[in-house]
Amino acid sequence: MKTQQVVDFFKTKGLFLDYIQAEKSTASSQEAASVIGCSTAEIAKSIIFEGNGNAILVLLEGDKKVDIEKLEKEVNFTVKKADPSFILQKTGFEVGGVAPIPNEHTEIYLDRGIMKHEFVWASAGSKTAVIKLRTKGLENALNAEIISVSL
After folding, report:
1. Residue 51: which of 123, 120, 131, 108 has the closest Cα?
2. Would you list the DSSP string of 87-102?
3. Mean pLDDT for each 10-residue chunk of the chain (151 residues)?
């Protein structure tokens, strides 16, 4: 999926606020925050796990980590960190550019902490593109469940 498709998806859901195509990398939360000029907590990072035959995408604040034990309790099955080829195959995006877009091979979960923000910046499908999104309505747009799994 291309960046424009990510932008179009969020525009149709009414969550799109802004978009930046950077000259520098936005692949990590720290890099994205530096390019945008915001805190890492305002970056919505997509962490991908493998479990139950699917990609498990957890969207959480950029300054947090996923507690795998909490995640396994929430989803009720064992998960493991996904490798880059699995991530590309299941999500259609490369590591560092995974946009939180639903598909038949990806289950999406929103960490509760991300929902305290009015908006967040997420990957727009490449290692140099970010998209500003409203958080209100994100759960429905992504067919996601809100869980508490951050450290």
Report:
1. 108
2. HHHHHSS-TT------
3. 92 96 96 97 98 96 98 97 96 96 96 97 97 97 97 94
pTM over 0.90: yes
pLDDT at 1: 65
For the chain, the domain total comes to 1
Instruction: Kindly report each contact of residues 84-91 with a partner whose C-beta sits within 8 Å and lies 24 or more positions away, as own/partner.
Output: 86/48, 86/50, 86/55, 87/48, 87/55, 90/48, 90/54, 90/55, 91/48, 91/55, 91/57
Q: What value does the CA radius of gyration of the chain take, rounded to a whole number of Å? A: 14
Give me the CATH number covering residue 61.
Answer: 3.90.960.10
43: Cβ contacts below 8 Å, ≥ 6 apart: 29, 32, 33, 36, 61, 62, 63, 120, 121, 122
- Identify the pLDDT of residue 108: 97
Residue type, 47: I
For residue 135, the enclosing domain spans: 3-147
Give per-residue burial for 111-147: e unless 16+ CB within 10 Å, then b.
bebbbebebbbbbbbbbbbbbbbbbeebeebbebeeb
3-class state of residue 51 by DSSP: strand
